Amino acid sequence: MSLVDLHTHLPSAAAPAWASWRQSDALAELDRFGIARAAVMTLDGLAYDAVTGNDVVAQVCAGSDGRLLPFGSVDPRRPDAADELRRCADRGFHAIKLHPWMQGFSPLEAYMDPVAEAAIERGLPFVMHDGTPPYASPLQIARLAARFPELTVVLAHGGLFDLWEDSVAAAVRYPNVHITMCGTAPRAVFREIVRRVPVAKLTLGTDGGFGDPDLRRHRLSVHRAILAELPDGDAAALAYRNAERLLGLT
Amino acid sequence: MTTDAHVAAGEHPSLPTLDVDDLLRVLDDGGVGRAVVGPVGRWLAVDNEDGNRTLAGWCAAHPDRLAHWATVNPWYGSRACDELRRALAAGARGLKLAPSVQGFGLLSPLLEPVLDVAEEHGRPVYVVTGVPVASEPLQLTELALRRPGLTFVMGRSGRTDFSLDLLPALTGAPNLVAETAYNGASLIAALVTALGAGRVLFSSDAPFNDVALELERVDRAGLSGDDRAAVLGGAAATLLGVAA
């Protein structure tokens, strides 16, 4: 079954992996792992400069025949953050990645409002790193979703590890909160997430490009074991249909 | 024969666990010969003696396959010390602590009496790390520096929030030992390089994790034959007295 990987990062510009990064290699890796399409998110743009990071993401995804899906980012503290979000929408980005601890913000502060309003206006979901206190707890992110019911919010890690039950609670309580299963947590936790959360709210990710070069292989092994336990319709939803719907690809 | 230094058993409020027969089947399927079982859930939090005695029974029934970690909640004070003495005398290979479940900070004086018991018996202490505020890797380093007569296992490798702390923490005291569970191949290789294979234990945290996938990560670490043998059993034989 072909997958949509809703969570990958470009290597940092300082990493050797970036010097050798080629789109053709990235696409060949997708083929090797049975991945139809993959989100592409910045790392450097979260740490240094979101605008430059977005430019790089746009460049590397161009000409991939829609297989590399550009996700942008904005620095919510900046007064022009909403403008940058609109620029991402104009260039065909599919979502906005936000990372409270790398970017140094809280999802509960007032500067989030214009960014969330622009995301609603342009129909871009927020994909938010979650599972890391103090400012990336699932229920803090869910509070933002509760304040903006028209905003689609994806918890990018399903609580990451210890906060998985918080992510389940958030996804069950708030219609606009979704979960990408992409965390350190063991398979038993992902099984429980699938059991407790309506499958329509779940997607898969690997965090490929972040840290361990073998991470994508490992996470896909876990994901495929879970998919094998599901009825065909649910497996297809989890593997790619939900991601396509979330990103407006269908 | 491969030794798994930590697999989980007990009544967990949120995740399914296995009885001994099913656990042995999982180990068989994954290619693990021996495992050291650690209590989770109710046994870890409150009913320590119940768990310790049950696991000792599993080990008595399968002495070639299973050994176990005992736990005591330090809040039980002298009763905790008594239970730990009993469990270690009955064959438990070491003490397992989980600060976030048992309700203490790693640097709390509350721990000292039970650590004294472990040290008197020359047994290691397995600590689940990675949950702020109670069990950060560098807190375990500080505890290891305070207690040089004890060996501590950095359980769960500080996952997830403190994975960047892992190597600085483990290299901060000589009496700290790593486990492989939740770590990728490149980090396992880095742990062996930094600490020596004698301070790295293969563990899966089954049944929560998949044994075969965790073993695959060790296989992909590209270790030398001797280092691989140490990680997959030799280090556990030395540290836990589990035959390699």
Automatic annotation (TrEMBL), chain A:
Q: Which domain of life is it from?
A: Bacteria
Q: Which GO terms describe its molecular function?
A: carboxy-lyase activity; hydrolase activity
The record's listing under CDD domains reads: metallo-dependent_hydrolases
Q: Gene3D superfamilies from the entry?
A: Metal-dependent hydrolases
SUPFAM superfamilies membership: Metallo-dependent hydrolases
- Domain Amidohydrolase-related, first and last residues per copy: 4-249
Write down the InterPro entries for this protein, in alphabetical order: ACMSD, Amidohydro-rel, Metal_Hydrolase
Task: Recite the UniProt keywords alphabetically.
Answer: Hydrolase, Lyase
UniProt keyword annotation of Lyase present: yes
PANTHER family (alphabetical): 2-AMINO-3-CARBOXYLMUCONATE-6-SEMIALDEHYDE DECARBOXYLASE, CATALYTIC_ HYDROLASE
Q: What is this protein called?
A: Amidohydrolase
- Source organism of this protein record: Jiangella anatolica
UniProtKB/TrEMBL annotation, chain B:
GO CC field = cytoplasm
Q: Does the record carry Disulfide bond as a key word?
A: no
Cite the GO molecular-function annotations of the record. Answer: carboxy-lyase activity; hydrolase activity
Q: Which InterPro entries match?
A: ACMSD, Amidohydro-rel, Metal_Hydrolase
- Source domain of life: Bacteria
Q: Which keywords are on file for this protein?
A: Hydrolase, Lyase
BP GO annotations: secondary metabolic process
Domain named Amidohydrolase-related: residues: 11-241
Protein name, as recorded? Amidohydrolase
To which species is this protein native? Jiangella anatolica
